[in-house]
Design a protein that fits this description.
Archaeosine Trna-guanine Transglycosylase, Chain: A, domain 4, 3 domains, 10 helices
Length: 394
């Protein structure tokens, strides 16, 4: 067992007894030993009673808990964690679906592995560590994952360079832990996508919008659709296949729009009613004269922490107002926030303010979240990061 022990202040153990996986620095009374970032630490209450095991880190969140039992932390422990995550996806049908070969394999706290994301792209697993503790385990996790999935895994890519705390001084470099390939093709409900996990955003694709893309398809037949912050065109492909008469994809990243165009050609050839615009979303709305039946807003996280919350809420209000001013009467607006710091209520209030400013009568048709392969621990509501509203605009 560990030599490093953290004792909490009196009363600060209550959230841990309710299985919340974070310990904040202000809750710590004392530390026995001198933990370095990424070390496994034992957490006790004020009476020295065992509470949990987790990875120590420098910052507001001081410990990310991965076990509430006093167990040996070894290869068997981590292999069982990964097996549990894989088995969960197998029960949901992700490994034998005839038209689906992409999913999230590990979703941080939702799978009891805080700080770890693993996405699966038709044989390639992309690992992204958000904590030093998980980063130091990456090579071991790659070996264990290959043992579990066997021939289903042909490559494992570590993409943690941009997600680790910069103060850790690890100098991480993205690269293959197993195999190698710069781009792959996946199938999502019969739609084909080229994935560039080396140069793309996140792990290469926004896996979390899968079910919401499917919903967009149901509203797109015979419609003019605008996909804003469209990245590599996920929503655009679904809208086109559903029979949209016109689809515009907008993203500030030129490489993203180039990848969108490739995905359009991959699915429909050269004659699809599609046009991509590599430009700022606000500039696009200010310049376009087109009115749309369906608009999708899927911006990046406007707030990655609480200090940015007010600016983020203003940003959501402004972009939603622009979209509401550009949508036809009877139109459908899909609007999302992936900011963990923004609650469902705060996001909804921003969209409410945008609706009032745009002077449009708006009804909520659907309230959306993340799919089942991005599980939300009932003890960790913060892991419900994706919020979405589908609005009918009169």
């Amino acid at each position: 067992m560990n030599n490093i022990k953290i004792t909490l202040k009196s009363g600060k153990e209550q959230s841990i007894r309710r299985f919340h996986p974070w310990i904040f620095s202000g809750a710590i009374k004392e530390m026995i030993g001198q933990p370095e970032e990424g070390d496994v630490v034992e957490v006790c209450d004020n009476h020295e009673e065992f509470l949990a095991l987790g990875h120590f880190q420098v910052g507001s969140i001081a410990v990310r808990i991965f076990s509430f039992e006093k167990v040996r932390i070894d290869d068997i422990f981590w292999k069982n964690k990964l097996k549990s995550a894989v088995h969960f996806r197998q029960q949901l049908g992700f490994f034998d679906h005839p038209e689906l070969n992409v999913c999230r394999l590990v979703h941080g706290e939702g799978d009891g592995m805080p700080g770890l994301i693993i996405d699966f792209y038709n044989g390639t697993a992309v690992i992204q560590a958000h904590s030093v503790g998980m980063y130091l385990l990456r090579e071991k996790l790659a070996v264990l994952l290959k043992q579990i999935l066997k021939e289903k895994i042909t490559a494992i890519y570590d993409k943690s360079e941009g997600t680790l705390p910069f103060k850790a001084n690890l100098n991480p470099k993205d690269g293959y832990l197993l195999g190698g390939n710069s781009e792959g093709m996946v199938t999502e409900y019969g739609h084909k996508f080229l994935i560039d996990w080396e140069a793309g955003q996140k792990t290469g694709f926004f896996v979390d919008q899968r079910e919401n893309r499917k919903l967009v398809a149901g509203y797109s037949k015979g419609k003019k659709v605008c996909n804003v912050f469209g990245y590599t065109g996920g929503f655009s492909i679904y809208a086109l296949k559903a029979g949209a008469t016109l689809v515009h994809s907008v993203d500030a990243s030129k490489p993203a729009i180039e990848q969108t165009n490739k995905n359009v050609v991959l699915n429909f050839g050269d004659n699809a009613p599609h046009e991509g615009f590599a430009m700022d979303a606000f500039d696009f709305f200010n310049q376009t004269s087109e009115k749309y039946d369906v608009i999708i807003l899927d911006p990046p996280a406007f707030a990655k922490h609480q200090k940015a919350l007010n600016n983020a809420l203003q940003g959501y209000k402004r972009i939603n107002q622009k979209a509401l001013e550009q949508i036809k009467p009877g139109g459908i607006l899909f609007t999302f926030s992936c900011s963990q710091a923004v609650s469902k209520e705060e996001f909804r209030k921003s969209v409410f303010a945008a609706s009032a400013n745009a002077r449009r009568n708006v009804r909520i048709l659907h309230q959306l979240s993340q799919p089942a392969d991005h599980p939300i621990s009932i003890y960790h509501p913060e892991s419900e990061y994706l919020k979405g509203l589908v609005l009918f605009v009169e």
